[in-house]
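[recover] target loaded
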């Protein structure tokens, strides 16, 4: 018997499908996106966990073999020693590609047209038809740092809007050459052909120096934390905007504040932050050229989230029981935070 613990909002149809699988026992608890203590008796005999955040008393899961998380980022798994314990893990890569890519396009247009100041003018009843409100993004160059599934869908939309796309990645592969991943039909760049130029490690400055927009789409790991500092921000043209739907600490906080204060960059759109919530006295709130969104670019409250993440989970339970490759499985090096 495979004992499964569900700690995410349920999808009735897919939960019913799961319950009909032979040899499974399902326990559903009130879902939470926050770490908390879960009664030990609910944890000890569970072989599979489906959650957003592992419990604070995760070590009580002495029978665990597989964990499915409901986010693309997986830094909540770092430090749990999953690889050393032989526990397999999968993330929600692919679930958020569409909404985050749409957020990126939305932010580029809003930043280019200075929508924040247009709205201020509306509220102040100011009629201002300045050229800064009439810019296009067609013909601009967007650099995507981290060419995973979110980066690939963003590239697809950007190319459709007539933008030049640069990609910064260790390698760009065809989907057929990659491990099993989740992808919505018709999305992304399955053959890896969309970027106009590809840059690899050691070419960061060449990648940055001619961009109009820089979009960060890599996970937060030991190697990516603080990867964007003063050197990288100063390499950008002063016309460039930076978008961060990935994780706040990928950009060094003091360096970002200095770049905005000194005009090294034109502005930013930030969906991921240094504190949750950001304190009201934090200076990032007050920059007129910064768009602040409360970590909703790939929201778990969207109309499609539950069906997509449950689709991955149900498939993975079936694959796990059949000893087939799992979708979105994280490698041991990723679980150790090395990549």
């Amino acid at each position: 018997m495979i004992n499964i613990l569900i700690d995410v909002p349920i999808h009735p149809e897919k939960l019913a499908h799961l319950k009909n699988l032979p040899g499974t026992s399902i326990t559903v608890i009130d879902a939470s996106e926050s770490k908390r203590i879960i009664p030990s008796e609910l944890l000890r005999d569970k072989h599979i966990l489906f959650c957003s955040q592992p419990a604070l008393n995760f070590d009580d899961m002495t029978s665990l073999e597989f964990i499915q998380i409901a986010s693309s980022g997986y830094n909540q798994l770092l430090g749990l020693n999953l690889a050393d314990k032989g526990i397999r893990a999968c993330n929600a890569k692919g679930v958020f590609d569409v909404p985050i890519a749409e957020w990126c396009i939305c932010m580029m247009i809003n930043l280019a047209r200075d929508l924040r100041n247009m709205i201020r003018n509306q509220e102040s009843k100011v009629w201002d038809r300045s050229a800064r409100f009439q810019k296009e993004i067609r013909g601009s160059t967007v650099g995507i740092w981290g060419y995973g599934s979110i980066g690939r869908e963003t590239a697809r939309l950007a190319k459709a809007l007539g933008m030049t796309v640069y990609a910064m990645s260790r390698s760009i592969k065809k989907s057929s050459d990659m491990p099993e991943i989740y992808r919505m039909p018709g999305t992304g760049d399955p053959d890896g052909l969309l970027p106009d130029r590809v840059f690899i490690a050691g070419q960061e400055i060449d990648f940055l120096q001619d961009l109009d927009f820089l979009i960060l789409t890599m996970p937060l790991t030991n190697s990516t934390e603080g990867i964007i500092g003063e050197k990288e921000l100063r390499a950008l043209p002063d016309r460039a905007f930076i978008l961060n739907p990935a994780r706040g600490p990928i950009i060094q906080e003091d360096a970002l504040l200095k770049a905005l204060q000194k005009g090294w960059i034109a502005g930013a759109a930030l969906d991921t932050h240094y504190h949750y919530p950001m304190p009201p006295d934090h200076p990032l709130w007050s920059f007129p050229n910064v768009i602040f969104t409360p970590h909703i670019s790939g929201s778990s409250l969207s109309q499609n989230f539950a069906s997509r993440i449950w689709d991955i989970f149900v498939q993975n339970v079936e694959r796990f029981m059949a000893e087939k490759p799992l979708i979105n499985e994280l490698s041991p090096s990723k679980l150790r935070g090395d990549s």
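[recover] notes: The two ends are 35 Å apart (CA to CA).
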